[in-house]
C-alpha cells in the first residue's frame, strides 16, 4: 500500500498544499502517476482523453408562503423573487478515498430555456474518481455575488459564508442545491433543485384609527441590531456561526410616490416596490427591545427595534413628528423568529404606541 503525503518532493518536483488543506487535482494526478511509474507520463491517457460532460437539470422550490402553502415547482428559468438565470457550482470528491478535493468556483453558468445547462464543467476524470465513487455537486445562486464565498472545512464539510447587504435595494436571496451521485448511475446528468436558504421579510404600513386626524408620511424604515453574517453547511442544510450586528434599510416605495408614502388608514401599504420584493436576512431568533427603552440602551444591549423616518402632522401644520422641511424618527420594538425559505409578513401600526428616542410616548 502506498501512502501519499500532502507536501511531497518527488523526482525533482515540488507539490504544495492549498490554503484550505487540499492539494490540486492536477498535482495529485501527476504525483500518483510518478509514484506508480506511469510510462506515458506527460501524455494524456485514454482515461484522461475521455470527456465526461456534466449536464445539469435545474429547478427551484419556491419560498414557503405564510399559510404554509407553496406554489408549484417550476423548471428554470424561474421567476419568483428574481430570475434564477445563473448560478455557480462546485464539486467535491475523494481522490482514491484519501483526500477531499474540491473544484475551483466556476464562472457564472447561464440556464437555458428548457431548464438544462450543458457547460464546460466535466465529471471528474476516471483517473481521479471511479465510476462508482460518490461526487458531491453543489449549486448556489445569489444576486450579490461578492458577498458569498465557497469554503471547505478541514474535515471535508463545505459551507457558504454569507454576509447580507444592509440595503434591501442591494441584496437578494441565496439559493442552494446539492446532489450526490456516481458516474455509473447518472452518466453526468445531475438534477439540481434549488432551495431558498434565507428568510424573506415583507413589511406593510397602516395608520390606526387613533391617528385619524393626522397625516402620516413615511420616508424609510430601518431594522436595527440584527445579525448579518453566517455560515450555511451544505451537507446538513444548517446555519451556524450566525453573528454580527447590523442595521437594514427599507425605503418607502409606492407607484408615483418613490421615497415617501402617505400611509392609509383603510388599507395596508406594502413597503416594497412590488409584491415579490423582500428584505432577505439570515434565519435567526431576533430579540426586541422592551417598550419604553431608550434607543441608546437598546443599542448597547443589541436588542432589535424599528426606526421609522416620518412626518406626522395635522392639516394646520401642527407637527407631532418631524417638520415641514425634515423627517423625524419614531421607534417600535421588533421581535421575530425567522425560518429559512419562509416569507415573514409584518405590519407596522402607525398609531399611539409610537415612541421617541428616549422611550417616551409621542401621543399621550
Secondary-structure-derived class: mainly beta
**Rg:** 27 Å
Termini separation: 83 Å
Identify low-pLDDT runs.
1-25, 28-49, 71-83
Number of strands: 27
SSE layout:
Layout: E1 8-10, E2 13-15, H1 25-35, H2 46-49, E3 53-61, E4 74-75, E5 86-95, E6 99-102, E7 109-110, E8 116-122, E9 135-142, E10 148-152, E11 158-163, E12 174-181, H3 183-186, E13 189-196, E14 199-207, E15 215-226, E16 229-233, E17 238-243, E18 246-251, E19 261-262, E20 269-270, E21 279-281, E22 285-286, H4 295-301, E23 305-313, E24 319-321, E25 328-333, E26 336-337, E27 343-350
Parallel strand pairs: 3-13, 14-27
Antiparallel strand pairs: 1-2, 3-4, 3-8, 5-6, 5-7, 5-9, 9-12, 10-11, 11-16, 12-13, 14-20, 14-21, 15-18, 15-19, 15-23, 16-17, 22-26, 23-24, 23-25
What features would you describe in this structure?
The chain is mainly β and 364 residues long. 7% of the residues lie in helices and 41% in strands. It has helices spanning 25-35, 46-49, 183-186, 295-301; strands at 8-10, 13-15, 53-61, 74-75, 86-95, 99-102, 109-110, 116-122, 135-142, 148-152, 158-163, 174-181, 189-196, 199-207, 215-226, 229-233, 238-243, 246-251, 261-262, 269-270, 279-281, 285-286, 305-313, 319-321, 328-333, 336-337, 343-350. It starts with 7 loop residues before the first strand and ends in a 14-residue tail after the last strand.
Amino acid at each position: 500500500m502506498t501512502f501519499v503525503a500532502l507536501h511531497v518532493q518527488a523526482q525533482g518536483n515540488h507539490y504544495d498544499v492549498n490554503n484550505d488543506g487540499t492539494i490540486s487535482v492536477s498535482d495529485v494526478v501527476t504525483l500518483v502517476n510518478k509514484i506508480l511509474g506511469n510510462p506515458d507520463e506527460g501524455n494524456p491517457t485514454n482515461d484522461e482523453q475521455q470527456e465526461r460532460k456534466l449536464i445539469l437539470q435545474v429547478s427551484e422550490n419556491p419560498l414557503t408562503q405564510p399559510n404554509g402553502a407553496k406554489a408549484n415547482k417550476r423548471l428554470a428559468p424561474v421567476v419568483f423573487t428574481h430570475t434564477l438565470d445563473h448560478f455557480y457550482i462546485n464539486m467535491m470528491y475523494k481522490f482514491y478515498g484519501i483526500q477531499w478535493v474540491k473544484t475551483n468556483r466556476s464562472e457564472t453558468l447561464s440556464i437555458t430555456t428548457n431548464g438544462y445547462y450543458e457547460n464546460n464543467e466535466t465529471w471528474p476524470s476516471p483517473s481521479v474518481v471511479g465510476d462508482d465513487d460518490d461526487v458531491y455537486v453543489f449549486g448556489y445562486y445569489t444576486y450579490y455575488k461578492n458577498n458569498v464565498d465557497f469554503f471547505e472545512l478541514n474535515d471535508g464539510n463545505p459551507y457558504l459564508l454569507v454576509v447580507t447587504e444592509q440595503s434591501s435595494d442591494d441584496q437578494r436571496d441565496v439559493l442552494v442545491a446539492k446532489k450526490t451521485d456516481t458516474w455509473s448511475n447518472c452518466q453526468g446528468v445531475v438534477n439540481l433543485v434549488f432551495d431558498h436558504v434565507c428568510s424573506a421579510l415583507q413589511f406593510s404600513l397602516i395608520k390606526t384609527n387613533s391617528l385619524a386626524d393626522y397625516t402620516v408620511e413615511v420616508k424609510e424604515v430601518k431594522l436595527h441590531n440584527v445579525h448579518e453574517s453566517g455560515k450555511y453547511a451544505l451537507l446538513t442544510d444548517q446555519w451556524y456561526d450566525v453573528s454580527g450586528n447590523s442595521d437594514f434599510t427599507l425605503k418607502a416605495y409606492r407607484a408615483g410616490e418613490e421615497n415617501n408614502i402617505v400611509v392609509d388608514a383603510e388599507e395596508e401599504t406594502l413597503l416594497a416596490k412590488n409584491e415579490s420584493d423582500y428584505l432577505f436576512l439570515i434565519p435567526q431568533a431576533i430579540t426586541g427591545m422592551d417598550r419604553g427603552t431608550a434607543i441608546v440602551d437598546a443599542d448597547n444591549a443589541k436588542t432589535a427595534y424599528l426606526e421609522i423616518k416620518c412626518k406626522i402632522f395635522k392639516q394646520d401644520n401642527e407637527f407631532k413628528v418631524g417638520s415641514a422641511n425634515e423627517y423625524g424618527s419614531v421607534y417600535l420594538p421588533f421581535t421575530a423568529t425567522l425560518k429559512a425559505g419562509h416569507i415573514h409578513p409584518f405590519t407596522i401600526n402607525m398609531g399611539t404606541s409610537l415612541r421617541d428616542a428616549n422611550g417616551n410616548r409621542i401621543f399621550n
